[in-house]
Specification:
The structure is a single chain. The protein has about 325 residues and is α/β, with parallel strands linked by helices. The chain has two domains: about 120 residues, Rossmann fold (3-Layer(aba) Sandwich); about 180 residues, Rossmann fold, CATH 3.40.50. Helices cover about 40% and strands about 15% of the residues. The strands form two sheets. The chain has a seven-stranded parallel sheet with strand order 8-7-6-9-10-11-12. Helix 8 links the parallel strand 6 and strand 7. Helix 1 packs parallel to helix 13. The protein is globular, with a radius of gyration of 21 Å. The two termini are about 25 Å apart. The structure holds 2-keto-D-gluconic acid. 2-keto-D-gluconic acid (8YV) binds next to loops. One of its GO terms (cellular component) is cytosol.
Length: about 325
């Protein structure tokens, strides 16, 4: 019988469904994994995991009968896709259902970063308003030049929202996107140089690792803001922290970090950054939709060997 293996601590609703409907096994803590995989590895036909955990090459080696990896989340950079493809293992993710909430978060984060809403809230709560008077002036959002790095589904949804703020929009993607009126820039650096606000919306993984390096951040400049709702791995975090601290950038709004849930200590002391705990898709409605799509992919795979939303790398 094909068994289902849960890899990582998934959201309660998903983990409960896997246990009750599929009698899924759960990959134990690292020190117990060798014995567990020797006993159960050959019976596992499908893994359910999330962007936070994923399946690496060593785990793939221990699962010789694995046919599919069903990933909760649109990002699957924690899975070794090349190793899975080599073995003919297919992968699904949960695109589309989270696009709006992630784009909403990008806008909220941008407004908060430029207007200092969370910092001003802290000012009121700490009694600063009564003792120190008016809050310092902040920066205008409307009309700012916005650069979108990665004009995929989420990038497009973010751009559409910024249109409502009369922002001129440019973008960089691996390829020029046909049919868009937004201005294409050939490199991330060119895009940053032409933007006041650079929004990182590209997918994670080997192709985008370190794409926003020091030179890109420097091109964004002392009046520039970085917003990241994608993956921490896309940005050189050390350079980012240094530039934010030394005035090389005006500010940053970050929902993602290089080593989550660890946030660089130095950022905690800065008021020109807004720090969120990777919550962009975290609404009741979207998480329910992501859970449903994950379970629908699993059911489709087990029923007829077909995934509903396979990732581009494994589409036939
Ligand atoms: C999820 C995300 O919270 O979809 C993604 O890629 O980053 C988030 O929506 C995360 O993947 C769950 O672990």
């Amino acid at each position: 019988m094909t068994r289902v293996l849960q890899v990582g601590a998934l959201k309660p609703a998903l983990a409960e469904a896997l246990a009750s409907s599929y009698d899924a096994l759960v990959l134990p803590a690292p020190h117990e994994q060798a014995a567990f995989l020797t006993e159960h590895g050959p019976s596992i036909g499908v893994v359910v995991t999330s962007g936070r955990f994923g399946v690496d090459r060593a785990l793939l080696d221990a699962l010789p009968e694995l046919g599919a990896i069903v990933n909760f989340g649109v990002g699957y950079d924690s899975t070794d896709v090349a190793a899975a493809v080599e073995r003919g293992v297919v992968i699904s993710n949960t695109p589309d259902v989270l696009t709006d909430c992630v784009a909403d978060t990008a806008l909220g984060l941008t407004i908060d970063t430029l207007r200092g809403l969370a910092a001003a809230d802290r000012y009121v709560r700490s009694g600063g308003w009564e003792s120190g008077g008016d809050y310092p002036l902040t920066r205008r959002v409307t009309g700012r030049r916005v650069g979108i790095l990665g004009l995929g589904r989420i990038g497009q949804a973010i751009a559409t929202r910024f249109e409502g703020f009369a922002c001129p929009i440019g973008y960089h993607s691996r390829r020029e996107v046909p049919g868009t009126s937004y201005r294409y820039h050939a490199t991330p650096r060119d895009l940053a140089a032409a933007s006041d606000i650079l929004v990182v919306a590209t997918s994670g993984g080997p192709a985008s690792n370190g794409l926003v390096d020091r030179s890109v951040l420097e091109a964004l400049g002392t009046e520039g803001y970085l917003i990241n709702i994608a993956r921490g791995s896309v940005v050189d975090e050390d350079a980012l922290v240094e530039l934010l601290r030394d005035g090389g950038l005006a500010g940053a709004g970050l929902d993602v970090f290089a080593k989550e849930p660890r946030v660089p200590e130095e950022l905690l002391a800065l008021d020109n950054v807004v720090l969120l705990p990777h919550l962009a898709s975290g609404t009741v409605e979207t998480r329910a939709d992501m859970t449903r799509l994950t379970l629908d992919n699993l059911a489709a795979w087990l029923r007829d060997g077909r995934l509903l939303t396979p990732i581009p790398e494994v589409r036939g």
